[in-house]
Amino acid sequence: MQAAMMYGPNDIRVEDIPRPKCPPGGLILKVMAVGLCGSDIRNMATDSCKGRYPHIFGHEIVGFVDELDAEVPKYKIGDRLYIYPEDHCLKCESCRDGHSENCTDPGDYIARQGGFAGYVPVTKEQLERDSVFELPTGVSFERASLSEPLSSVYACQENIDITLGDTVVIIGAGPIGCFHAQLAKLRGAARVIMLEINDVRLAMTKRFGADFIINSTKEDPVQRVKEITEGRGADKVISANPSVQAQAQSIYMARQGGIVVFFGGVPKGSLCELDTNYIHYHNLWIYGHFGASSLQVQKAFELAISEKFPADKFITHVFPLKEINQGIELARNGEAIKVVLLPNRSIAIN
Ligand SMILES: [Zn+2]
Ligand SMILES: [Zn+2]
Question: Which CATH number goes with the domain that contains 222?
């Protein structure tokens, strides 16, 4: 099978390798679509595997069952499945409390073979947990691959209850920022204000429902948000970018009693200097967000595969797997919103 092998930071080679063996009690999925995620790009550009190479990344996986261990009665050859990368134990305190995003025994999807390959093994444990979803007839593999990036966005907006009439600031117009803008509009936000430093990206956010766009290198974003909100500030501010400076500044865009979420990961070890006195006197609620609970994963999948969700606007580029490096380049320079790779096809068939 073809696989995009990472040999070290920024060294990705598409090679022919033997296909994996079917795990006991598990199955082999023929990968039909796999999204290229910002976190994949980050992992493939750094020494994420601490020297243990080659490694295959890719965690936004959709395909069909190609091989089954005899002991898996639940699925059959040809079933079309979406695999959420992080399976949860459903037994620990967090899982039982409805917060499986905090599971103490999650599946380690970074250590497993990923989906930038023709075939991927799905273990017995994954099948027994909460991470496998069947695609209804008529739903394309490409559309279903958006379920994974949508899931943490969905979870975040459900947790902070973005609702009818809200003014929402989203800092960072990468793919995730675009998901945030679209979802906020679907949830009824009255105004979505996008902040970004890249003009190409900023212009693209309009198609996802951004009502106002601000290039924060060209105008003072805090002042502009205040102008747009008649001096009040936004109900909810989501920092979806890797900058601690953006996090520090984000609090001044929220209204009295507003909510600020640190959604995007920042470089490991970097610290943020926060005006906690401002937070205190403005009764701000500061949240961190990562992942999604089991049920939120399911609900995000259901939304992604429904007609309500404009998948075509998100998938700007579809490439065969061998062009992964070109996909990475387009995602990096902001030209692409979502790149979807096809390890077993050269073109998309919906
Ligand atoms: Zn992802
Ligand atoms: Zn758990």
Answer: 3.40.50.720
